[in-house]
Fold:
Amino acid sequence: MKLFLLLILVGLIIFISIQGFLKFFYRDPVRVPPQIPNIILSPADGKICYIKHIKSGEVIFSKKNRRSINISDMLQNKIDTTQNYILIGIQMSFFNVHYQRSPIDGVVYDKKYIPGEFLDINLSRKILEFEGERNVTYIKGNDEKILAIVIQIASNSVRRIESFVNLNDRIKRGDKIGMIKFGSQVDLIIPAKNVRLKVSEKSRIKAGETIIGEYGNGENK
Structure:
């Protein structure tokens, strides 16, 4: 009888622990976007792991755990490749809120989901290409000069990305657009023309609240 009661107690503790963990992990705090014109908000919670300035025509590579992700392939015919862009990588930890939010007001003009796999290529040169699960959301601003591309990147072991938006949905800054369960990384691509960045590498940021950049102040180089 004592063993039976002990097993029940242990089971109850495990159940309560799991429920507490899930409640913490799926927490969804209220976020109040700044009411400032022409700003770009962070799409994710986390730390900025890199900021890359992409010249026109340049192949765009993201980085995850020292592995390359060819972004140019998934952007074909979706952006003007004669323009310069800024690529911002946001690394998420287990403790971050895992919902992603729209950086700008606008319309979802395209989406692309990539189930993914992990490939090692050209090992003699120690080049590793990550082909994990990704989801790309393309958002065109109300001012068509403004554009934001949000790339959700799951870890190869998890593969659990959810999207909350559909093609032609009209969304506002700070609206939830998706979630990466157990997190990983979110990349943001924005045109470089007439934008001034408000963050730097290693900055800690919050989705829907932290201002990433502001349009109308000259190109950030």
